[in-house]
Amino acid sequence: MQNALDPTDLWKEVSLRLYKTTGLMTFETLIAPLKPVGFEDGKLILSVPKEHASKIINAWNTEQYALDFVQHANEITGDFIRPELRITDADDNFVPFTSDDQSVNAMPFTQDNDLNSDFTFDKFVKGAGNENALAVALAVAEAPGKVYNPFLIYGGVGLGKTHLMQSIGNEYATTHPKARIKYATAEDFLNDFTDSLREGNKADSNATAKFKKTYRSLDMLLIDDIQFWSGKEKVQEEFFNTFNALTKDGKQIVMTSDRYPTDIPDLLTRLTSRFEAGITQDIQKPDLPTRVAILRNLQERNDLNIPNEVLELIGEKIDTNVRSLEGAFHKFEAKVRYMNKPATIETAQSILSELNIDQGKKITVERIQETVANYFMQSVTDMQGSRRQADLVNARHIAIYLTRTMTNKSLPDIGRSFGGRDHSSISHAYNKVAEQVETEPKTKELIEDLANEIKNGK
C-alpha cells in the first residue's frame, strides 16, 4: 500500500489529526517543524531541523506523539507505519545523531519482548515425545506467518512447551532484529486487557487504543497457557479480534495449552475453529533415552563430569516431566559443587530419597485402575465395562483422569484400556474431573492421595 501513498499527503492527514489533540502551541512547537521525506522499511521518514532537534526528539520520545502517529496512520491507510525522525541541517542534508540525540523510532517499539534467552533450539533436547512439535517449530521460526499459522503446542505441565515456543521467538529475533515480537501468558493478556478497560473509563484516556496497538501491531505473538481463558468470554472475544487482525496481515501466532483446544471447557467455538485451522502438535512425557539426553545436556552446560550410570539412574526414576528432571539435576549439582559430595550413585540415591521417589513403583494403567477400583470398592472389569451406576461412573472418570495425567498414554490408548471407549468419551471424563479438581477441594485432595498411592504404594 505504501507505494501508492504520497508521504506528503499522509503527513498532512496525520498532522491534522495530531493538531486536534495537541492544541496550537504544542503543534507549532513539536509537530509543524517536521517535514515528510519518504517511506523506508515501513516507516515515514520525517526531517527535524537541527536547531529544534533536541526539544522535539525528547518530546516524541517521552510523550504519546509516536503512538498517536501509528494509530492515525493505521486508520488512514490500513497499514502499520512508524515515524522516524532524522535531523537535517540548514541545507536539508541529514546529519549524524550526537550523543544527546535519540531516534524516536526506538522509543515505542523496542519494548522488552519478555523472552527468556535460555530458551533456544540449541538447548531443546529432541526426543520421541516432541520431535513432531520441534519440526513444526523450526519451520515456523524460519518462515513465520507463511506456514503453520497459528501453531498451538499442547501437553502436560513441565514438558517444554514454553521452551519450544520461546525458541521460535528467540530464533526469529536473531534473524530479524527489528521484528516486533511479544511473549505473554494468557493471564498477562487478560490483565493488560482488564487494565486497558479500567483506564479507558477515565477521562481523556487512550488506554484501550494503546492495548490494541501493542498486540495488533506485532510480527509475532506468543501466548502461553490459553486454557487460563476457560469461561472468560470477554477476554476470549478480545483475543479473537486480535487473532483476526494479526493473521489477516500474515503475522505469526504461537500458543500453548495443557490440552487440545476442543478439550478446554467454555472456550468459544469460533476460537477453537480458528486454532484448528492452523496446526496443533502435542508434547508427551520424554522417554528414558530423552531424559538421559536432557541430563547430559545439563551436565555439559554446567561443566560437570557425571558418570553415565548416575545420569541413567536419575533419568530412570524421574519420569514425570522435564521440569522435575531439571530440578533433580540441580539438586544433585548443588551437592556435588557446593557440598563437596562425590558424583556417585550413592549421592544420586540420596537426592532421590529426599524427593521421595527412589522407592516409587512403575506407573501403569493397570496399577491406576487397580488402585482406584480398590478405593471405590469396584472391580476393574466393571470399570472397563458399560455399566452406568453413579459410583462406578465416578470411579471410572477418576481413573481416566489419573491415567491421562500420570502416563504417556494418548486419548485413544486410554480409550482402549477402558473397554474401547472413543476419544470424546475419554475427553469428557478427563474434563469433568479436571474441573472438579479446580473447584472442589475434596476432589483435589482425593486425587492427590490416589496419585501418591499409585506412585509409592502408600
TrEMBL record:
Q: State its location(s).
A: Cytoplasm
Q: Which domain of life is it from?
A: Bacteria
DNA-binding recorded as keyword: yes
Looking at the record, the residues that make up the Chromosomal replication initiator DnaA C-terminal domain are: 364-433
Supply the Pfam families for this chain: Bac_DnaA, Bac_DnaA_C
Task: Name the GO cellular-component terms.
Answer: cytoplasm; plasma membrane
Which residues take part in binding ATP? 158, 160-162
CDD domains for this protein:
AAA, Bac_DnaA_C
Domain IV, binds dsDNA as annotated region, ranges: 337-458
**Major place of localization?**
cytoplasm
For this UniProt entry, the molecular function terms from Gene Ontology, in alphabetical order, are: ATP binding; DNA replication origin binding; lipid binding
The GO annotation for biological process reads: DNA replication initiation; regulation of DNA replication
Record-stated family: Belongs to the DnaA family.
Q: What does this protein do?
A: Plays an essential role in the initiation and regulation of chromosomal replication. ATP-DnaA binds to the origin of replication (oriC) to initiate formation of the DNA replication initiation complex once per cell cycle. Binds the DnaA box (a 9 base pair repeat at the origin) and separates the double-stranded (ds)DNA. Forms a right-handed helical filament on oriC DNA; dsDNA binds to the exterior of the filament while single-stranded (ss)DNA is stabiized in the filament's interior.
Its assembly, as annotated, is: Oligomerizes as a right-handed, spiral filament on DNA at oriC.
The record's domain comment reads: Domain I is involved in oligomerization and binding regulators, domain II is flexibile and of varying length in different bacteria, domain III forms the AAA+ region, while domain IV binds dsDNA.
* Database matches in NCBIfam families: DnaA
Supply the name of the protein: Chromosomal replication initiator protein DnaA
